[in-house]
Amino acid sequence: VCDGQASTISKTYREHLLSSDNSFLERMWPKAKKAMEFMIGYWDGADEDGVMRGKQFNTYDTHISGPNTFTGAQYLAALRAAEEMAKEMGDEAAAKRYRSIFDKGSKWLSEHLFNGEYFVQEWPQKEPDYDYGLGCHADQLMGQWWANQSNLGYVLPRDQVKSALQSIFKYDFIPDFSAFEYTLGHRVFVWDDGAGLICCTWPKGGKPDTVILYAEEVWTGIEYEVAALMIQEGLINEALAIVRTAHDRYTSGGRNPWNEIECGDHYARAMSSWSVLLAAQGFRYHGPKGILGFAPRLQQDNFKSFFSTAEGWGSFSQKREGSSQTNLIELKYGALKLKQLDLEVPSSDLKGVKVELNGRDFPFKRELVKDDVVIVFPGSLTLKEGDSVRIAISW
Questions:
Q1: Residue of 136, 154, 135, 157 lying closest to 144 (CA atoms)
Q2: Burial class of 173 by CB neighbour count within 10 A (0 to 12, 13 to 18, 19+)
Q3: Residue 134 near residue 120 (C-beta atoms within 8 A)
Q4: Pairing of β 324-344 and β 388-394
Q5: How far apart are CA 212 and CA 63, in angstroms?
Q6: Strands (DSSP E) found in the chain
Q7: pTM of the model
Q8: CA distances from residue 359 to 140, 169, 329, 330, 355 in whole angstroms, order as listed
Q9: Fewer Cβ within 10 Å of end Cβ, the chain: N or C?
């Protein structure tokens, strides 16, 4: 399964970031590298142009044919994850090679598959399978979602990513299924008067004779994925509309809110809901390096949320008033190793930064990197249960 192969590479890097040291990556890197090399050789080929061709079996239980961003962007995310893992393991040759393949693939997909609104599949295919052709697929940015989990940056141009998300909401979000006409005979997960995001539509035609399976189904796992991406791109109202309809679907009408059904009961894909929390927090974390960061996307003037790290969990809050911002990190359980703390601010004209540990001044160095105040602690700071760090910033 090509997308499963790609996601396993991506999640290997994600789990490294969520570790307390490098021992996990040191153990897994040889296997992750082998998996990456298999992807390149089997689906990309000798040209190593960053584009997967041929038949690609995937999580929709069918093959898809030729270049597309549903599987192709996941390949790009895997290449970026492998690049970063190679760098951390001192394998500079592999890192350089993966970056070269990534750059070529990102450029090709952007230039050949973006139709001005969203990304399509290269169509028609010489040997078509269960494809989506010129459709607007809700999973067309799955690779960008994977990249965002580990702060890997854009795998496709930012303006195209945002446009594609707007198109997914415009064409795939159904606010009232009472008037929706099912044509593909798939499973129905939305009651007649409900709302939801379906997997694929064909607003501009180009619908293949043999359509990718499950195109008219509503999966909460995809809804949360898309909503998280929307939050990160500032499409807050659209994101909350999708999350709200998923919530309403399972908290009314006699359904179980702890069992969001897709392929079967308690299906794992719904756990992508966690990514909505991370997107809302603007959460960034590198456990082995002791780097923690936040850039809230909701209620930036008065924000508070739970967070978890390699060895502990706690709460983060942010309050903005006038030309000042106060952030508070409170560790409720375990331990948290901190060497660097990144906090987003709305102004580059800083006047002052103050850090307190448990109410007392604590030494630090700081700099402004783009929109972030980067606070570096001497040596390292290890928070224990009950400890708190308060940061006051003015501009």
A1: 154
A2: buried
A3: yes
A4: antiparallel
A5: 8
A6: 55-57, 63-65, 136-137, 173-174, 196-197, 200-201, 284-286, 291-294, 302-308, 312-321, 324-344, 352-357, 360-361, 365-369, 372-384, 388-394
A7: 0.97
A8: 48, 46, 12, 12, 9
A9: N
Copy the structure tokens of residue 248.
Answer: 């309403």
What is the C-alpha separation between 323 and 351, in angstroms, rounded? 10
pLDDT digits (tens), the chain, 395 positions = 999 999 999 999 999 999 999 999 999 999 999 999 999 999 999 999 999 999 999 999 999 999 999 999 999 999 999 999 999 999 999 999 999 999 999 999 999 999 999 999 999 998 899 999 999 999 999 999 999 999 999 999 999 999 999 999 999 999 999 989 999 988 999 987 899 999 999 999 999 999 999 999 999 999 999 999 999 999 999 999 999 999 999 998 778 999 999 888 999 999 999 999 999 999 999 999 999 999 999 999 999 999 999 999 999 999 999 999 999 999 999 999 999 999 999 999 999 999 999 999 999 999 999 999 999 999 889 999 999 999 999 99
Between CA 276 and CA 384 the distance in angstroms is: 27
Strands 324-344 and 291-294: parallel
Q: What secondary structure does DSSP assign to 158-170, as a single string?
A: HHHHHHHHHHHHH
- The two structure tokens encoding residue 180: 């929706």
Q: Are 236 and 284 in contact (CB under 8 A)?
A: no
Q: Using DSSP, state whether 188 is helix, strand or coil.
A: coil
- What does the block give as tokens for 88? 């951390």
> Is there a contact between 59 and 3 (Cβ–Cβ < 8 Å)?
yes
Peptide bond into 124 cis (omega under 30): yes
Distance CA 40, CA 51 (A): 9
Planar angle of CA 22, 27, 29, nearest 5 degrees: 90
Q: Residue 1: how many CB atoms within 10 A of its CB?
A: 14
Decide if 210 contacts 195 (C-beta within 8 A).
Answer: no
Distance CA 105, CA 89 (A): 24
